[in-house]
Amino acid sequence: MLKRALLGSLSWLAAHQEEVNRLNVFPVPDGDTGTNMLLTLQSAVEDIKDSPATEVGKIARITAHGALMGARGNSGVILSQIFRGFGNAVQNKTELKPSELANAFEEAANAAYRAVIKPTEGTILTVAREAGRAATAAAQDPNATAASVIKAAAQGAKAAVEKTPSQLQILREAGVVDAGGYGLQIMIEGMLKSVEEAGVDLDKIVPSAKLPAAAQVSMELPEEGWGYCTEFLIEGKDLDVERIREEIAALGNSVLVVGEPELVKVHVHTDDPSRVIGLASGHGSLVKLNVGDMSTQHKRILEQSANGVSQAHQERRPNGVGVVAVVAGRGLVEIFLGLGVDAIVEGGQTMNPSTQDMLEAVKQVPYDDVLLLPNNKNVVPAAEQVVGLSDKNVRIVHTHSIPQGVAAMVAFNPERPLKDNLKAMEEAVAHVQTIEVTHAVRDTRSNGMRVKKGDVIALINDHLKHAGRDYGQVVKESLEDLKPDKYELVTIYRGEGASDQDTDTLSEAIKGSFPALEVEVQPGGQEHYPFILSVE
Description:
Shape: elongated
Number of helices: 19
Distance between the termini: 62 Å
Largest sheet: 8 strands, mixed
Radius of gyration: 26 Å
Strand order of the largest sheet: 2-3-1-4-6-5-7-8
Structural class: alpha+beta
């Protein structure tokens, strides 16, 4: 019954997903609430469909782990904690009495409240609490059943949702109820439908009458900007959740850090995602990392609102094509987002993302046609697997380096269909030469060259070509190899390890040796490679 209730919850939320999305009022949503909750719930129940487990404790534990792995956005992370609280309350139980079910609903809310540093009333937290209280009251009836407890929880959730505008001014101004709270109400109603109506076809459930969408609420962009919505999982051993929460809280807002000693989910809005990522990586391995530029989203909202474009369609491109790129380094992330990339998968050299990481990023893009830029030769094989695994029409732009990725995005036209964009982007990639400058980490011999540990080395289009003790000399030799009279522009992407003096010296050396070339310097922030050069 618990299994069926969860699957019913998923089907009912799926039917109401867009309705929940339309209730969003936050001006720079880090993903629509309905979509985030649905993706989290899908991940939560994915593993229970075929599980042979019949004990509620085991089913709940599988669900809680899946929710944590798939949590998206504020609402998704809080939802994962609701499942965690429920799972802890029914641990080691094979079945539940009505009173135990009601207690699990209350513990689910308590866990969610504990996960949020500054709980706000009038949100999904309030709805979870009132659902739990209503369930507990119903369980006092001597004739209480699982269905009557769930029904009471659904009624308590509905009443709480209706009160949310009186608790939050922004909801009153927009003329809507809280999106996350309504999403939770829908989920509990879906549980009730599946329990009460054992013969109902969950795949054919249709939405009820729709609520009015959110009106535009005037909220100005803060001077410092909204920052970046940064999300990831930390995998490790004996992870100190409280310590990680304190450290992350000092670097941003809308902070949610939840999990267990082996797996911690982080969600934060910050103006320095690279610092957050660097701090977190000191605790364990990072997976499923996504960074979104909320200031850019906000500017689009204001511009399109001024032009009379509705919020529900503000992000849609005329061609219906989305773009996902694999990028590492704050400056490079900003560049790709500025060029129109919809989702960033953190990764590249020495940190190759998995197929799952890229698949999840593709899922979150609000388009059925998606272009995926691996931007690294070693990432291409994993990226190619996404094509067969995704329900969407995914095409790989075979970018083997960051400069190729930038060139591809410059060639991307939001008015042009997928096939034509793919062709134009691949053609742009073919006209870019890449020089990656780093230091040898060991003594070796390659391409007839003897390289000593610490030497400056240059790779031209992934092939080691030059080594020496000086950035300027090694880059000069590399450019000579490329016959610079065929090119017009050299863009230097400055890495994390490059000093101002190193950068200025390299730039001047190129200008002095090749006066016909225009030289630009861009902050890349990439690790391991002090300089990456694009030659066009």
